[in-house]
Amino acid sequence: MEQNQIPTTSDPSVALIVGVTGMAGLALAESLHNHHHNWKIHGAARRPPPSWFPSSLLHSFITFDALSSTETLTKLSPISREITHVFWVAFQLQETEETNISRNSTMLRNVLDALTKASPSRLRHVTLQTGTKHYMGPIFDPSLAGILVRHEPPFVEDSPRLPYPNFYYTLEDLVASYSPAFTFSVHRSSIIVGASSRSLHNSLLTLAVYAAICKHQSLPFRYPGTRYTWEHFCDMSDARVLARQHIWAAIECDKAKNQAFNCTNGDVFTWKSLWKVLCQVFEVEFVEFDDEIAKGFDAVEMMKEKGQVWDEIVKKHGLLKTKLEEITCFDALKIVLSFDFQHVCSMNKSREFGFHGFVDTFKSIRMWVGRLRDMKIIP
């Protein structure tokens, strides 16, 4: 077979999930393992697998630093001729967007170069995980705070790019630059709901830790956002729906090739209604939003002093050893819960192309909290 020749569909499919220990990565590994039995699945991450990761999902777990082209080539060379599909769900997030652009594009380029330069290369399709920052700009870059102008919701895929640096744009351009060697698809999630101690922005785990600390210290479980977000609509992306869309675009829908898709659960909620669900599942008392108290309440500052409390909770319940600052994202969550617009995406394009995955967000929350407990990440 000539280099970069696309194999016939009868050839066995071999996946490489980069970022396999994150929320989306775990869901992808489980979905491929459970529903595509003829696939061989390789998983890759920067660190060895945590104790909760089910090793039976994978043919092999590969540990390497994708920022190093030499290490990437060395670790991937034994499988580079067999990989047919890459599922890219890996990120490194730094304080500035320019650094995000440099580091994330280097990682993706090193992996794709290692696979496409194999002789022969069997790589057919790459799925790329991004998100709604595509429509809002780099909201976590403090140097751009207060100056970003976003698109109006509901967010739609054909919106023009915003005039700000954005590593999502860079990664989309990078993966497209390899055409026609392979096809690609882009998957823009909302707030991802899943189970992992290794995801950088895990809002559900952050709220679970917050609730556990409040319960442990008999503190009120106050909503750490604004009245606007308390009362207005938002959406989320269950990691299972996200995994299904990645796989659908990669192997089931030819017209989804070289396209970008939003991916949410298909419903919307107010944070007030969701907060009631969280209080039930975490077994804490529901506290109504109070404007006066909200003015002086800062969960980010509060949690800076709670590292030792979390250590006590971990020890008391025999949990996986984690550090508060490693598994929570209170700064990012504060930004999201302070939006002055409704964070809602349109799923029309996905439906028009034939993807109909959905889940009830409240049921999703309950299920994933159960998974986090089963994994001994939270009490």
Describe the overall structure.
The chain is about 40% helix and about 15% strand. The protein contains 16 helices and 11 strands. The strands form 3 sheets. It has a 7-stranded parallel beta sheet, with helices on both faces. A two-stranded parallel sheet has the order 7-9. The model is unreliable at about 1-10 (pLDDT under 50).
> What's the shape?
globular
The unreliable regions are 1-9
Alpha carbon gap, first and last residue: 53 Å
Number of helices: 16
Keywords:
7-stranded parallel beta sheet; single chain; alpha/beta; two-stranded parallel ribbon
Write the layout of secondary structure elements.
Elements: E1 14-18, H1 23-35, E2 40-45, E3 60-63, H2 69-76, E4 85-88, H3 97-116, E5 125-131, H4 133-136, H5 167-176, E6 183-189, E7 191-193, H6 203-216, H7 227-231, E8 233-234, E9 236-238, H8 239-252, E10 259-263, E11 269-270, H9 271-282, H10 291-296, H11 299-304, H12 307-317, H13 324-327, H14 330-336, H15 348-353, H16 361-374
Parallel strand pairs: 1-2, 1-4, 2-3, 4-5, 5-6, 6-10, 7-9
Antiparallel strand pairs: 8-11
